Each structure stands twice: as structure tokens, then as C-alpha cells.
# Entry
Amino acid sequence: MITKMSHATIYVNDQQKALEFYRDKLGFEVRTDATMGAFRWVTVGPKDQPGFEIVLMEPKAGPMLGEETASQIRSLVSKGVLGAGVFDTADCKATYDELKERGVEFMAPPKDEFYGIATVFKDNSGNWFSLTQPKEEG
# Structure
């Protein structure tokens, strides 16, 4: 039986630039930065979520991808069509202000939604994420 998800992969066009974005702009911890043969294994994660790691993977030809597929993935990432996920925060507006000041590109300011307060931002490869403050229950 599956008990949890420990890793999720985000394709990025430059691992070093992505590492700097997630570490320096989002404040994530670097969990792993290691060479594995011809590949670099880089993982990051939110400080308050130690059991979950985001793999920052460059789409390169190898055992899992052919060159044509890797090239197509690089193109799609650059176009910003591969949404990557949702990050929660306790205060969406304050987090928006802080990240915007650090140079994070947002699509719009936070706004009220049926599920809470939300906005969308992009990483430096073009992946987009929702940033949400879930609606308080009660």
C-alpha cells in the first residue's frame, strides 16, 4: 500500500538557475545536490515539510528520454504550459509582497476565490504555481 509521496519532479531548463530561484527567492532548503553519472540530482523543499522533495530535473536525453522528447519538453517548459503545482501559505498577501520584492514574477495580485486567497507565479523556467491561503474552516 502506498503511504505517502516523497518526491515530485519539475522540469527546468537550467538546474543551477532553478536551484538559485527555489533557494534564494522562495526560501526552500536544498536537500540534495549530487552528480549521478552524467546527470545532476538536485532536490529542494519547503523548510516546514522535510518529508517532501521537489526534483529539479533538466530534460536531457538518456535512459528515460530520447533527444526528441527532451527537446519537446524543454520547449514546453519555456512556453510556460506545464503547470507545476500549488503551494500553501498562511498569509497569501504578505507572501506575495515578500516574493515579489525578491523578484518572483506573478501573473496577478492575490484575490479572493471560493477556496481562499490565491495568486499564480512562475519560476525562471516558465513553470507556474498557485500560491494559496486556504479558506479558514468554520
User: Anything to note?
Assistant: The chain has a mean pLDDT of 93. The two ends are 33 Å apart (CA to CA). The helical segments are 15-25, 67-79, 92-101.
